[in-house]
Amino acid sequence: MEIAKVLDATGLACPMPIVRAKKTMETIGTGEILEIHTTDEGSKSDLTAWAKSGGHELLEQTKEDQVFKFWIKKA
Predict the structure, then answer these.
(1) Which residues pair with 58 in a beta bridge?
(2) Is this prediction's pTM over 0.85?
(3) What is the 3-state secondary structure (H, E, C) of 51-73?
(4) Where is the UPF0033 domain (predicted)?
(5) What CATH number corresponds to the domain at position 62?
(6) Per-residue pLDDT of the chain (75 residues; tens, 9 = 90+)
(7) How far apart are CA 68 and CA 61, in angstroms?
(8) What distance in Å separates the CA atoms of residue 65 and residue 75, rounded to the nearest whole number?
(9) Is 14 a catalytic residue?
(10) Given strand 57-64, what is the order of strands in its sheet?
């Protein structure tokens, strides 16, 4: 999977991971993939819902140590 950008939102609490994801998503092209790293437990449901509401595709979601990783394809 080719990543267009990686957003490090670790250490940020809700709603900042979503705010940063929205801003970063505006900088990549349609069909490109944004990788997001967070440590906020709430980001699992928040980013999933945000991707769906924006028409984006959540390709994958994992947890490594205390970091949640998301790969979202821009609509």
Answers:
(1) 72
(2) yes
(3) HHHCCCEEEEEEEECCEEEEEEE
(4) 7-31
(5) 3.30.110.40
(6) 899 999 999 999 989 999 999 999 999 999 999 999 999 999 999 999 999 999 999 999 999 999 999 999 999
(7) 7
(8) 30
(9) yes
(10) 5-9, 33-38, 67-73, 57-64
- Catalytic residue among 4, 12, 14, 58, which? 14
Tokens of 35: 């990788």
- Domain of residue 50: give its range: 5-73
- What is the domain count for the chain? 1
**Is the Cβ–Cβ distance between 1 and 34 less than 8 Å?**
no
CB 19 within 8 A of CB 7: no
Q: Do residues 38 and 20 make contact, with C-beta atoms less than 8 angstroms apart?
A: no
Task: Specify the amino acid at residue 62.
Answer: T
